[in-house]
Amino acid sequence: MAPVPPPQLADYDDLRRTFDWEAEARQLDGLPNDRGLNIGHEAVDRHVLDGNGDRVAIRWNPRRGDPVDMTYEQLWRRTNRFANVLARFGVDEGGGVATLTGRIPDLYVAALGTLKAGSVYTPLFSAFGPGPIKQRIDLGSIDVLVTTARLFSRKVAPILDELASIRHVLLVGDESFESDDPRVENLEPLLQAAGEEWTIPATDPETPALLHFTSGTTGAPKGVVHVHQAVVTHYASGRYVLDLRPEDIFWCTADPGWVTGTSYGIISPLTHGVTNIVDEGEFDAERWYSIIEANEVDVWYTAPTAIRMMMRVGDDAVRRHDLSSLRVIASVGEPLNPEAVRWGEDVFGMPILDNWWQTETGGIMIANYRSQPVRPGSMGRPLPGVDATILQRDAEGEIALDAAGRPVEIDDPGSSGELAVRVGWPSMFREYLNQPERYERCFVDGWYCSGDLARRDADGYFWFVGRADDVIKSAGHLIGPFEVESALIEHPAVSEAGVIGKPHETMGELVKAFVTLARGFEDTDAVRSELLAHARRSLGSAVAPREIEIVDALPHTRSGKIMRRLLKARELGLDEGDLSTLETPAGQAAAEVSP
Amino acid sequence: MTNEEAARVIVDAIEAVAADADPREVDPTEDIWYALDLDSMDQLNVMIAIGDRTGIEVPEADYPKLQSLADMTAYLAGVVTPKG
Which among A277, A276, A338, A278 has a CA at the least distance from the CA of A304? Predict the structure, then answer.
């Protein structure tokens, strides 16, 4: 086996002093003839131009059967064809393309082909139900949806008539499927008829590239817009946190339906020219260890829920495999508990490196590093080039301002406040789609305020404390309670619904709903089961509540809003004496009831 | 436990976890999780629900062997010593 290469971030303080985003940007090529910066070019085309087209870009492990390799040259040709299809449709340069598929090669082709066409790419999670799918397609005014015949018939066909913005639905795979709707076509014949040559249009680095959706406490999901410039963060964080090198075999287990699976399951690894492992299968510890062993995976990026499920399966399963190829194991999605960090050290021979970021930050902001001491339970220290701080909050849960109108940074290592990042990193989101006021509210005096509560210890390590709002973090995914409540009250049996995150040992939190029944309905097993079924059909398994409790009444504020924090406190068994603090108008108290 | 009893417990457990799913519609040899769109958390919860109903604790390491109704029925019917 080749010797283990030294960490690319060797001395943290040194790199913080010398780090320069411009210099990182120069590690990328830019479009030929100074025509700008395009993620698709950096992830695919430049490797072909550099003579590395025969390297494996994507090694796909189907649910069943042998792995299938796609080289950078094959990916280049197929993404060119996809871009040509979009151009023929007239949805290149600014058009919106979404994918709704499992983890299959054409998802990667569609994502990168879209970026190369100058269109905007939106991933949709395949475990969404028709409700979340429709809402996101409408909000994003998506023109083209790429999906499979199976997911189309289950989730899209029933709502297709209502999807006004959709001009084309392109089906991957099974070509025998036929639809009466003229918008529905099979992708493969279109690709075969399209040209293999494509010139990426001039791309200003500030051109929108990615549209992700993330959930807030109230209202519809927010459309988070990232620009092509974001690739500089994807590249640099891949280099210093994941320690990626071109010769690496890399595996990010996150689904591209969520931001991690896009930033680190597609873009970051491919900009480094690595071989990117894609597994179509669901979590299965034995399968995962076999994939690492068979492919000699060097760098593995996964999530706390998966790690805790592996812990449940036990140490023997790990020890039956030779996993000595691993150099870095990293985790993101929610805080990794100290036991899991230590478990990693015990069974894999290295601590699992937790890190922190959000859909809005586009890439890793705070991290533990291979070369640096790890404090189990801490998210680590800011990336070189990123300034993070803790800002004081007032009684209303707003950022507190001093006499000069400036936010107040907290230096006391014992005190928590809102985690904020200094504006200026390349992958900062550029807007919440069609919601400029909501976007503006995220910024105070040059700081992006994350909505996460944290503290910073005396050595600059950050520790997650809780969410400042009612958003639920389940299995690493943000779920907005409002979206779930809205789906529940659509059912005739439901009068009102309040939805919370209930602490769960494996998933972090699970979605739990409290509902009151409409007149004429009674609390029976059949009603509860019908409500669970309704929610899953509408929202899909990723968002639907896993528990529904029928109650006589829900607590309200004086203005009539359901007090989710009170429901949560009751669920956690906090006594009445604690409840007074929960009735403050804004999020301050949420931290105190978080697990 | 007879095969019939085992099959009934499994169908009950799946319906309790994923109320929208109809396991009776699925071919007994098909990959049940894929056919019903059940994720790994659903799978874990089905196993826990089976445990609640039968006292049989299925070790996580055995989950990969339990991909179809037929697999699960044979597995449960073959377990002779329920816990407790």
Answer: A338
User: Among A63, A305, A546, whose Cβ lies nearest the Cβ of B34?
Assistant: A63
pLDDT digits (tens, 9 = 90+) for A214-263: 988 778 899 999 999 999 999 999 999 999 999 999 999 999 999 999 99
Do A156 and A181 form a contact (C-beta atoms < 8 A)?
Answer: no
Phi-psi region of B36 (alpha: psi -120 to 50; beta: other; left: phi over 0): alpha
- Residue B34's domain comprises 3-78
Q: Which residue of B has its CA nearest to A314?
A: B61
Instruction: Examine residue B73 and state whether it is found in any structural domain, yes or no.
Output: yes
B61: chain A residues, CB-CB within 8 Å: 285-286, 313-314, 316-317
Interstrand relation of A381-382 and A388-391 (parallel, antiparallel or unpaired)? unpaired
Tell whether the model's pLDDT for residue A582 goes beyond 50: no
Task: Calculate what percentage of chain A has a pLDDT beyond 70.
Answer: 96
B35 domain-assigned: yes
| Structural domain total, chain B | 1
pLDDT category of residue A594 using cuts at 50, 70 and 90: very low
| Pick from B38, B45, B61: CB nearest A314 | B61
B20 → closest Cβ in A63, A305, A537: A537
Map A179-223 to HEC letters.
Answer: CCCCCEEEHHHHHHHCCCCCCCCCECCCCEEEEEEECCCCCCCEE
Alpha helices, DSSP H, located in A419-524: 436-440, 481-489
Res. B74 pLDDT band, cuts 50 70 90: very high
Answer yes or no: is B83 within a domain: no
Domain presence at residue B60 = yes
Rounded distance between C-alpha atoms, residue A161 and residue A485, angstroms: 25
- Both tokens assigned to A247: 């010769």
Mean pLDDT across the stretch A113-140? 97
| Contact assignment for B20 to A127 by CB distance below 8 Å | no
Q: What is the value of ipTM here, to two decimals?
A: 0.83
**Domains along chain A?**
12-353 (3.40.50.12780), 386-467 (2.30.38.10), 472-593 (3.30.300.30)
